[in-house]
């Protein structure tokens, strides 16, 4: 194999690897990227840490936005799931941002996504 052919092969493999990585990294809120067990755990955590502001039906209360329905869908549909997750991790619960573990936040997010189907 010549040096040019070898270099072209390496570039092609690198490009394919990058494309495969990016394809996996672009999962969105529409992709159902959670398990039923996560959603079940998330429901209990939501009731304990979120429902007081976002409401028991995820409809939002006063200043807290809805986490289900048309407004939520319009805001988050097609957005990378990591963006929603980081928003929750960094800003919630409002009284104590960052106080929940990443697993707890993932479970809450699974519940929210499951409600939104």
What this model shows, in words?
With 117 residues, the protein is an all-alpha fold. The chain is built from six helices and no strands. The longest helix is centred in the first third of the chain and has 23 residues, at 3-25. It starts with a helix and ends with a helix.
Layout of strands and helices, then pairs:
Layout: H1 3-25, H2 36-49, H3 51-54, H4 70-76, H5 81-91, H6 102-115
Helix content: 55-70%
Mean pLDDT: 82
Got a strand count?
A: 0
Individual helix count: 6
Order of helices and strands: HHHHHH
**What proportion of the residues form beta strands (DSSP E)?**
under 5%
Outline the low-pLDDT stretches: 3-22
- How can the largest sheet be summarized? none
By oligomeric state, this entry counts as single chain
**How far from one another are the termini?**
52 Å
Outline, from the CA principal axes?
Answer: globular
Structural class: mainly alpha
Rg = 19 Å
Short description:
It is built from six helices and no strands. It has helices at 3-25, 36-49, 51-54, 70-76, 81-91, 102-115.
